[in-house]
Amino acid sequence: MYCDKTQRTLKKHTIHISGSLILIFLLLFSGQALSAPPSLDLPIRCIPGSTCFIQNYFDHDSSDRYLDYSCGYLSYNGHTGTDFRLRDLAALKSEVAVLAAAAGIVRGIRNTEPDMLLIQRGGRTALGGKDAGNGVWIDHGDGWATQYSHLLQGSVRVHEGDHVTKGETLGFVGLSGNTEFPHLDFSVFKKKKALDPFNPEATSCGTSSDTLWSPAAIKALHYQPTGILVSGFSAVQPTRELVEAGNFAQKSLPADAESISFWVEFFGLQKNDRLTLELYDPAGKQLSSNRMLMPGNKAVMFAASGKRRKEPLWPTGRFRAVVRLERTGAIIIQEQSEVEVMLTAHHHEN
């Protein structure tokens, strides 16, 4: 029953699970009237807006464009799930649990796909149709089902036929399948049709309807159109790849650093947003400034501002950075960060 999604359609093929061939989409109650839908709890053990973020919602635009349930831009064309992303690749080490959103019976699993960025796998064709990576498919009865995709290789701890309870751990968030960042792709189905748990009856965005989420879940899942994923300082020129791998987690920098840079990674930037990054030394002198006008919507945006060292040493003390994001003339995000620049033991000896 575990399946891989391509745009709006589900691939109608069979996959080998636990030694038997299972036909995708075989639902036991097809043709019968459906009872009340399951009440869904959070499918991931994290704090939305803090330790995890919804990067992409269900696409409610039937054209080649995309709109999420609130008529915002946190989606992509044809997306039929909800992507709960971690801040960066380093967060995978904390083994964030994927949870059963409702009680049911496990109908299919996959657990052997490697955790690699898509580019590292050699592109989508190298996946062999296993776009969803490792995951679990749960039947909740009366045509209702949920799927949990992109789990960590070897982390799936349930088996086909297991009865699971709401909140039971299924595995850990991973990087398997067709993905560019660590996340859980959570999908809901009603008699083979994918539904948006935030707005299951809507045919277009902005239409009100009853949510499938439990009261506790919907309270935690307030809509956040834009935010900062990670930010920090580095002693060398930063790149998105190095940042997401957790290479710049230091709390201080040496006075002989070749450069000092402030970096930030956003999600949900929109066309015509104005982004400003500024870096100041301990005396308040501006060292660098980077100003950008977004030419279009950006699901993820990495930016940095810094300066190379020209003197023998940087002045010691607290360097300060300011990041500011403006939208339609109003500041929607403004934050300050600091880092301590210190003499090392080598400098004290000399």
Please render the helix and strand layout as text.
Elements: E1 5-6, E2 9-10, E3 14-17, E4 20-23, E5 52-56, E6 82-86, E7 97-99, E8 104-110, H1 118-121, E9 134-141, E10 144-151, E11 163-164, E12 169-172, E13 183-190, E14 193-195, H2 215-220, E15 227-234, H3 240-244, E16 252-254, E17 259-269, E18 274-280, E19 286-293, E20 298-308, E21 317-327, E22 330-342, H4 345-349
Describe this structure in words.
This protein has 350 residues and is mostly beta strands. The protein folds into 2 domains: 216 residues, Glucose Permease (Domain IIA), CATH 2.70.70; 123 residues, Immunoglobulin-like (Sandwich). It is built from 4 helices and 22 strands. Strands 5, 6, 8, 9, 10, 11, 13 and 14 form an 8-stranded antiparallel β-sheet that branches. The protein has a 5-stranded mixed β-sheet with strand order 16-22-21-18-19, with no helix packed on it. A hairpin with a 2-residue loop joins strand 13 and strand 14. The chain is globular, with a radius of gyration of 23 Å. It starts with a strand and ends with a helix.
Short characterization:
This protein has 350 residues and is mainly β. The chain has helices spanning 118-121, 215-220, 240-244, 345-349; strands spanning 5-6, 9-10, 14-17, 20-23, 52-56, 82-86, 97-99, 104-110, 134-141, 144-151, 163-164, 169-172, 183-190, 193-195, 227-234, 252-254, 259-269, 274-280, 286-293, 298-308, 317-327, 330-342.
